[in-house]
Predict the structure.
Amino acid sequence: MTDETVLVGGFAHETNTFAPTPTGRKQFQQRLERFGEAVPAELRGTNTGIGGVIDVADDAGVDLIHTVAASATPGGHVTEAAYEFYTGEILEGARTHREEIDGVILPLHGAMVPEGMDDGEGPLLADLREVVGPEVPIVVTLDLHGNVTDEMVAAADALVAYETYPHTDMGDTGATGMEILLETIRGSLTPTMAVERPPVLAFTPTQNTREGPMAAIMAEARELEAREGIRKVNVFPGFAAADIPEMGFSIPVVADGDPDAAADAARDLAETVWERHDALVGDYPTPTEGVRRAAALAADNEDDGPVVVADVGDNPGGGGTGDTTPVLRELLEQELTDAGFAIMCDPAAVQRVSTPASASASRSASAARPSAGSATRSRESTAT
Ligand SMILES: [Zn+2]
């Protein structure tokens, strides 16, 4: 017999709206799709948002009702069908269990953009609020790459973001979210949020929380949490490859019943962010200049190993397609030798080099080996 019952649902995607290939249910199934009791069977004890939620619930003797856990590799817009399906699982769970649940916790991402919409999380939370009503607390944990919309802030009682990038604290974030939810259910916390959005577009490499401007901003966030009435200071540098109106930096602060304290803390940290905006925006060379600088560095430091050039505009970890060629073109045009290039997504090229006989060889070989020749031709036709 437990005192509290909490509904859990996870549906996470970082949507690169510039990527041409939509993200459908198949893409979620390739990474993570579990329902009901298969969720804790898969995620208990893992460094994930839901793993952290389960840890705290187990310790506190809280009953969890699992709906769905789904996430896909960053990519193009989430299809309408996939969005309706996964949000439907969460909303249906809330409808079914409305009378028995004391709260809801949703580990989401924050940068989901479904087809035909600007924001995936905000409308889900608004719909969920309709279902559970104003009295049932909703806490949402998010990746710090989330683009936090006003609708998300309005519909949730508290948002809780990762504090690290590269991300290492997914489980801790889920645990903190669950602790905040339990404090709210038990009446020791009355969460109220305020959000500031300093007008800064932080480029991915400058979002590193281990050094540079973000390390200092995160340290200040932790200091602000020691202030009277402040429960959680969230820092979202945002996800620039989601081309939506509310894309960018946001600082939603959770205070205990004191909206002014939340607003003051958010404002103070936003000023720090603004003071550091030059470092956050960064200074990045064009492909021409970048390759030129790399060549000069390599020539000056022959014994120091390779110089690595990263095309941060096409990062597959952020939904990039991995098929853009400006850096490769510069390597060729600047006639660099002793240089390598990786990785290029080019199925047609892979087809050509992995086929036993190349196109010209297959034609000359087709008289001697007609079956191999015809097979080569048919594979080539499907690759184009
Ligand atoms: Zn992230």
